[in-house]
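Record type: ASSEMBLY
Status: queued
Input:
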Amino acid sequence: MLVFVIRLIIFSNNLKNFNGHIIRISAKVLQEPSKFSNSQKFYLEGFNFYLPKYPQINYGDRVTVEGTVQSGKVINAKLINLENNENVLLGFRKKIISFYKKSLPEPHSSLISGIILGYKSEQTGIFWSQLRKTGTMHVVVASGMNVAFVAGFLMSILLMFMPRKKAILVSLVGIWIYSFISGFEAPIVRSTIMFSIALVAQLFGRLSFSINALFLSALLMLIIKPSWIYDLGFILSFTATASLMLFTKRVEKLLKWFPKYIKTDLTTTLAAQIGVAPILFVTFGGFNLLSPLVNTLILWTVPLIMIIGSVGGIVGLIIPGFGRLILYLTYPLTWYFISIVGIFS
Amino acid sequence: MKIWKIVFLLEFLVITSLLLAILSFNNKKFQIIACDVGQGDAILAIYGDIQILTDGGPDSKVLDCLGAYIPFWDNTIELVILTHPDKDHFGGLIDVFERYEVLSFLKTKATSSNQSYQVLESIVGGKEVDTIYASDSLSIRLGKIYLDILNPIDSNEVSIEDKNLNNSSIVSVLKFGNFEALLTGDIEIEGINRLIMEGKIHDVDYLKVPHHGSKNNITSGLLRFSSPEVAVISVGKNSYGHPNKEVLDLLNKLNIRVLRTDELGSILIEVNKEGQFYLD
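Status: finished
Output:
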C-alpha cells in the first residue's frame, strides 16, 4: 500500500512540472490508439497525444513525439519518428484485424474486431452512437467478459486432453497471451490478473476467491500504472465486478420465476448495473433504463461471435477464401446484434 | 455442450447466413444512393453485383453506406470515380481502397498536396487497380449500366496543381434503361455554361446538385436544359452556408423535388426495368 501511495505522488507531480515546456517523448505505445474521423489519440507517459490520422499508429509501435504542455494537455503534437513493432503476436493481431476489415462490411467488421481483439475503430457511424445510447458499448470494446470467455473456453477444451493441473497452467499462459494480443486495456488486465489469482488458487486447492482478489489486482495494476486511476474503463470495470460479486445472489433470488434461458444474462447485467449506473449517470449525465433488457437480448451472441470469429480469422490467414466462409457464419449474429441495438436506441 | 447441439447451431447459422446472402442480393432494380457522409459527396450506383462509387466523402462514414447497400459477401467495387481531389470527395476513398477490391479507378490528372491525398495515392499505387483518366469522349459500360463522361474535355489539359479544381470535376451521366442521372461533382458556372454551349446537357431524371448547393454552382440554364425530376443535394453541417437559399428557391420555383442528405440521411432511389423510379 505504501509503495502505491508513493508511486501516485510521484506520478501527479510529474504532470504539473512540465507546464509551458516543449517536451519530446520517445516510448512504446502501450494501448490501442483511439481513432477519430481526422485524428488519432494515444496515451504516452501521462499525456494524451492527438496526431493526424495518417500514418496510422498501432499498439506496440515505438514513437517519438513532440509537443507543448499546457495545463496538463499537449498541444501542437508532432510525430518525429515511428518504428513499427515487429513482434510476432502483434503482427498476428494486425493481420487478423485487416482480414476482418476486408471480409465483412461495416459496422460488422468493427463489431467483430472489437469483441474479439478489443480493436478501437473510428466509431463515427450511427451504430456507435446507438451503442452508447443503449448502454452496450462495453460489449464491443475489450472487457473482462472476453477474458472470462477465453478462460472458460480454454479450460473446457483442455480438460478433455490433460489433467486438471496442466490445463490450469496452459490456460494461465493462454489468457496472458490473449490479454497481450488484445491491447492490455484496463478491463482486460484487471480480469486477467483476477483469473490468474483464481486459477493459481485452484492449483493449490483453494476455492475461496472473492473481493480480496479484486482489490489485490487493483492494487497491483495501480502500482504498475498509476495513471489508470483516472481511466474510466478501469473504474467502471472494477465497480462492475465488485457489484457482480456483491449482488448476483440477491438479484437471482428476486428473479426466481424467470425462464432459465434468459435468467443468467439478465441477473448478471442487473447486478453489474447496480454499481455502474450511478457512475454512468454522473459522468455521462444519463442512463438508459432499457439497458439491462438490451444487454440480455444480445449477450448470448458474444461467445458465439468470439469462437466462430477467431476460428475464421485464424483459418483466413492460411486460406483466405475458406476463412471468409467461416466468418460469414457470424453475419446472422452480428446482424441480429446490430438490429437489436438499432431498435432500442 | 453436447455434440448434437453444436451441429444444430452450426446448421442454423449456415441456413440463416445463406438466407441473408440471398435477401441482400437484388438484381431486379437499379439503385442509386446519395450516401449520408456529412459535408461531402459519395454516390453509389448498384445493379446486381455491379457497383459504381462516385466520390467517397470526407472520411470513413462512407463505409457504413457501402455496408448497408452492398451485399455482405461482395467485396468488389467495379468502378470508383474521383471527380476532383478535394478532401470532402476523396477522404473516404482511402478506407474504400483499403477494404474493398476496386477494379477500376476513374480520375483526372489533377492532384493535391494534401497529406491524406498522398496517402490515397500510395494505397492505390500498391494495388492492382486499373487507372483510367477521364475525357469527354469516354463511355463506359458495366453490365446494364452506362456511363458517359461530359467533363473534363481532356484529362491531360487539367493542370496538375490547378488552384481551382472544381471546374475540372468529372461530370458524368449514369444511364440505366430510360433512367438518366447527371452527376456533377463541384463544377462551377463557368464549366456548366461551357457544357451547355457545347450541347452536352440534355434532359435527365436525376440531378446531383453541383457543390453541395453552393450559390456559384448552379444556373437556371442548367436546370432548364437538364429538367430533372429530382435534385439531390449532398450536404452536411458546414460553415459555407450550403445549401444556398437562392439555390433552393430556384429549384422550388421550377417545381423540382429537392432531396437533401442532411435532412433525409442516405437517399435511395430505385429504378425498375421499365425506367420508372421512386424514392424508397
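Annotation: Chain A has a mean pLDDT of 80.
Annotation: The CA atoms of residues 110 and 121 of chain A lie 6 Å apart.
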